[in-house]
Amino acid sequence: MSLIIEGSDNLGKTTFAKKLIRYIWDHDKYPVMYSWMTRPNEETFDFCESYKMMLNPYTVQDRFHLGALAYHKNKLSFSSLNLVEHWIENCGGLVVLFYAENESWYENYISKDKRGNLLDIQTLCKANSVFKRIALRKHKLHPMIDYAFDISEKHFPSDTAVKFIANDWIRKRREFIMEILENQ
């Protein structure tokens, strides 16, 4: 039931997550927390089952399964991707994807970032390219995405978009919880 925010570095995922959480705290009073996923160790992380353990009905998740497609070549199989997306969908989760359609703008933007990046610019640009193909439905696996935002030129989602997505997630969580209660 997590609300999952995906995309390459420096596109506003964390800022968006914090806006969502603030909106939910202020308007819904539903318990919600922020969680950030580091890039997993390819030797120890199960690129299927480990995602299932991380799903949480109270979490806005910064990075999740789609990062495996962008940063970990051949680690998330088609069948595993389908299974992870089935878990997300069945528990009322949403997936929001940030990408930069203007790749030269993105490369220039991250090269000027003073905070520094954990990965080199070439790796981040390749990752953005994968996220862009996913957002435009040109990736070979066609992962499930509920919302996609092109952040080129820093066109960040509006407060209206934050409210809409937060309310959609709240609605899906309530439906999921009601279904659980009805089946008890």
- Overall outline: globular
Strand content: 5-15%
- Tell me roughly what share of residues is in helical segments: 40-55%
Record the strand order, biggest sheet: 2-3-1-4-5
What string, H for helix and E for strand, traces the elements in order? Answer: EHEHEHHEHHEH
The CATH C-level name is Alpha Beta
Low-confidence region ranges: none
Return the structural class: alpha/beta
Radius of gyration: 16 Å
Major sheet attributes: 5 strands, parallel
Spatial gap, N to C terminus:
19 Å
Number of domains: 1
Number of strand segments: 5
Annotation field: number of helices: 7
CATH architecture: 3-Layer(aba) Sandwich
Overall pLDDT:
89
CATH superfamily assignment? P-loop containing nucleotide triphosphate hydrolases
CATH topology: Rossmann fold
Task: Provide a descriptive summary of the structure in words.
This protein is of the alpha/beta class and 184 residues long. It has a single domain, classed as P-loop containing nucleotide triphosphate hydrolases (Rossmann fold), CATH 3.40.50. Helix content is 48%, strand content 12%. The chain has seven helices and five strands; from the N terminus they run βαβαβααβααβα. The protein has helices at residues 13-27, 49-54, 66-71, 78-90, 103-111, 121-135, 159-182, and strands at residues 3-7, 33-36, 59-62, 94-99, 147-150. It is globular, with a radius of gyration of 16 Å. The chain starts with a strand and ends with a helix.
List the helices and strands and how they pair.
Elements: E1 3-7, H1 13-27, E2 33-36, H2 49-54, E3 59-62, H3 66-71, H4 78-90, E4 94-99, H5 103-111, H6 121-135, E5 147-150, H7 159-182
Parallel strand pairs: 1-3, 1-4, 2-3, 4-5
